[in-house]
Amino acid sequence: MRTLHETNLIFRRAMRLSLRNPVWVILGLIQPILYLTMFGPLLENMTEVQGWPAGDAWQVFVPGLLVQLGIFGAAFVGFGLVAEMRAGVVERMRVTPASRLALLLGRVMRDVVVLFVQGVILIGCAELFGLDAPLGGLILGLLVVAALGAAFSSASYAAALILKSEDALAPLANGLAVPLLLLSGILLPMSLAPGWLETVSDANPVKHVVDGVRALFLEGHITMTVVWGVVAAAGLVAAGMALGTRTFERESG
Predict the structure, then answer these.
(1) Domain-located, residue 67
(2) Structural domain boundaries, residue 240
(3) What is the pLDDT along the chain (253 residues), one digit of tens a residue?
(4) Number of domains in the chain
(5) Domain for residue 97, yes or no?
(6) Is residue 10 part of a domain?
(7) Is residue 24 part of a domain?
(8) CA terminus-to-terminus distance, the chain
(9) pTM reported for the whole predicted model
């Protein structure tokens, strides 16, 4: 109970900071909405391309944008922690008896809420372009993307605590996020890639998350593709939280 209470306190503090400066929520949506506006209309006939799931173009493209939002919206949250470290906020929290897990979970919960709101806005914009997906699939897809965001958020905070520098964090985040994105089949089906690259893509857990969310948007119910996507997301969350918790305990202990 004590950890839950402390997590709630950290979450409320982090949420207040976000509400005071909501411009970052809007800025995080700019890139996916640009893709939606300028790239999406070019893909109206993309279901004719070998490798795309059979279905409406927007039901295939929008889940990829949501996953992209989940990755890049969470991979850079560590910048805020670096700023707090520089201002002495983390140092003051470190001398309190607060659970190190709570210090991480409270921030991650804030990031998940922000990501969920961004996802709802992105889906609303996509519906103006013609997205028509089952409501159950939309909700479950958003939850899977939120879990993915929690994984990347935890890892970002861990990296921030270790590196303690925006100059080092930026190339690390880009260096990890961009290959995962390119190998996930968000923009083009990986079946078009040479065999060795497709094999590498199959080992990318984000690819299975993308496939799972797409299946939810297309069919609206649980399939084996969805199950594998959920398993991949859960594995990433477990790894991210383990790394984040261990780093908070070591660096803030």
Answers:
(1) yes
(2) 55-251
(3) 777 888 888 888 888 888 787 776 777 778 788 888 887 777 765 555 556 676 677 888 899 999 999 998 888 888 888 888 887 777 777 666 667 778 888 899 999 999 998 899 999 989 988 888 899 999 999 999 999 999 999 999 999 988 888 888 889 988 888 899 888 888 777 877 788 888 899 999 999 999 999 999 988 888 999 999 999 999 999 999 999 888 877 765 5
(4) 1
(5) yes
(6) no
(7) no
(8) 21
(9) 0.87
